[in-house]
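Researcher: I need the complex structure. Ligand is nicotinamide-adenine-dinucleotide. Inputs:
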Amino acid sequence: MTTILVTGGAGYIGSHTVIELVNAGYEPIIYDNFYNAKKTVLKRINTILGREVKCIEGDIRDAQKLDLVFSQNKIDGVINFAGLKAVGESVKMPLEYYDNNVNGARVLLSAMLKHNCKNFIFSSSATVYGEPDSVPLTENSPLKRANCPYGQTKVDIEYMCQELQVAHNDFSMVLLRYFNPVGAHKSGLIGEDPKGVPNNLMPYLTQVAVGRLKELSIFGNDYPTKDGTCIRDYIHVVDLALGHVAALKHCLNKPGCHIYNLGTGTGYSVLDMVKAFSKAIGYELPHKFAPRRAGDVVECYADPSKAKNELGWVATRTLDDMTFDSYNWQKNNPNGYED
Ligand code: NAD
Ligand code: UFG
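Model: Output:
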């Protein structure tokens, strides 16, 4: 049995990945400090799987606790989802972001080295490409200085991982650059549950649909795109979760630094998303145009062919699957997870 420590495993992407790890025959252990997750998610995961998944409450910055976890469990690899991820918040509290994300990854990697665990998968982001010079983005597209502390923590951790892999070349280091994760598990039992008013498009759409918010503001309709709104590569969270399984299958115990874009390769505009979402709910979702949001890139979508060729992974879920599953989750849980 291959055991994978899933830090941040109670969060949005982590919880979906835990399900797919079990489905693929891996044994996950969730390690989460519940800063941005509710304990209810654990019950939901167990209901979906029909069995219990082990969970340890802890912080990735807690070296002593990690020492105990690695001593008491035979851990073959780590997937690190633990981190803070709100762009605006990171501008207001940069030190917390560098501490939680960069220092957290450093402490975690130190514990792994100490316990001779040399398989690491990191949740990176398309944010490392900044405002792209051209699209689609390949893994060789240049990294840019990020436009916010959150984004910069991703760039910094990527460099730290690569440098560690040079120093310890028996390490298998996997950097997965996610595009825009949306959607939810088919069961409607787990999904995205942001604190406060959502910053991201899809949870905003779902909360308007269930009446928690009045209408969507579309940030900017004068961009140089087909309809004036920004273009993103939205990817279903279950496809993303399966990307981690594929990365484990191909990269476990394979020394090197393996970098993959996880996206669909298709860009949709904000208006495309509103249209697709309106189709899922059966009426036109209330929306209006508003000024541009500072820091938004115009157009960002992946060339996912490296992951296809090397990992045999492709995203198969459609835009209709993404909107339907997002809405289904929110409809079943209008107030998210309630503890
Ligand atoms: P999330 O907030 O739902 O999940 C993160 C989890 O980590 C939460 O359960 C939180 O409680 C936990 N956590 C935070 N700090 C911790 C710490 N110090 N120790 C232990 N646990 C801690 O976020 P998500 O959307 O699932 O994102 C997971 C990862 O993917 C993050 O690193 C995020 O930056 C990255 N990512 C997310 C997106 C996105 O749009 N959702 C895009 C690109 C990359
Ligand atoms: N948008 C709106 N109205 C909203 C929310 C979003 O019009 O209420 C638009 C944005 O302007 C953007 C698109 O919808 O054009 C997507 O916005 P998201 O916030 O959902 O996604 P981003 O691509 O802007 O953000 C992503 C990740 C972040 C990451 C960021 C880096 O979700 O984690 O890329 O640029 F930091």
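Model: Summary of the prediction. The longest helix spans residues 94-114.
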